[in-house]
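User: Hey, quick favor. My workstation is busy. Could you predict this chain's structure for me?
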Amino acid sequence: MNDVIENRTFDEIEVGESASLARQLTERDIQLFAVMSGDVNPAHVDHEYARDDQFHQIIGHGMWTGSLISTVLGTQLPGPGTIYEDQSLHFTAPVRPGDTVTVKVTVKEKDSARAGVVFDCTCTRQDGTVVVSGTAEVIAPREKIRRNRVHLPDVTLEDRGAKLRRLINDAKAYGPLAMAVVHPVDSASLLGASAAAEAGLIDPVLVGPEAKIREAAEAAGVDIGAYRLESTAHSHAAAQRSVELVKEGAARALMKGKLHTDELMGAVVDKRAELRTERRISHAFVMDVPSYAQPVLITDAAINIAPDLEVKADIIRNVIDLARALDIDDPKVAILSAVETVSARMGSTLDAAALCKMADRGQIANGTLDGPLAFDNAVSVEAARVKGITSPVAGKADVLVAPDLEAGNMLAKQLEYMGNAKAAGLVLGARIPIALTSRADDDLSRMASCALALMLDTKQRGARAA
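Assistant: No problem, here it is.
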């Protein structure tokens, strides 16, 4: 593209003179135009709707094509200094993603008294079909203008939470999961549980002080009449009763409400609850990072503060089970450190090397491990290439294993608050999935955590049945 734009003055313009440009329509163009204009007509942005309309697929906005006429007039003929006065357009055929539109404006007449110029305008598809035709009237500049082309900023489209929404839709096929919602005495807990129930993800059992639950439901405008309510005296009793419901078969998962994590987990790890397995309990986030191609799982960022080698092995086994429940058949597991080389001075690199050898020997199964890997090498193919790292995991990790809780928690929070990521998460390694929601979680995060629990429960029950 020429870095300089120059106009044609009124005196230079001749009748019959023309200018043109060609532009291919992409789905990104359609989305950008919808964001800019607010025109979210489903014919343009909803694939499911568009399959059944007259064109059988999404089409571009008519005014996207029309705007290309303005582009030619404002940058080529007449160019800088042009004042748009009138436009008449006739739309005759659709433009679909992948179509190339050629826009041509031709000088039809001139008015010396006011420097007015009338243009014939046509927009033609690559197959010769005219999609738009009409006329445009402008006031042409009388003085010569030559300017450096202004370089516009790059525009990034982010559909924040799209991957989590797809996960929720996938989980709906498995039917509702009986879930004890522990001490839901605040609006956030009840709204999240209600939204998940309405989506068909869970069949909630509300466990806690009845009066406080009903008061919170009224404040949040949530109708809890259809849900089972187990009344307890306080939050500690709610945690105990919730694990009893699991033992009784009335619940197959737990979701944290408004109580401290250690209060809930204390009831879970109590030997009388019979919820422990031979593995160490851990936590995993499923992060929807707009700039990353697939969901990425981060572990452990919530439970194990300074895991040793054996605990890290269980953390990885747990997260592999979750990844496989999300239909990631061979999860690529990156074991993070600050560097990608093994050093006796950095214990996390020794652990990473040992964990990879454990995987080689079958002690950790059903995933592909590599480490130590620095974060950039784990998520960027280009960074791995520059460092000369040849690995099936580098640049394409499905799972990021943090060296300790502090690193994992900071990584997850940085992605959420500076990378526009959305997060859901589960406690793993117990006999049931546990949604360890935060007060800062919105409805989407809570629903996605319920979807994770449903998918993991379905996978575990299938494995047990087999």
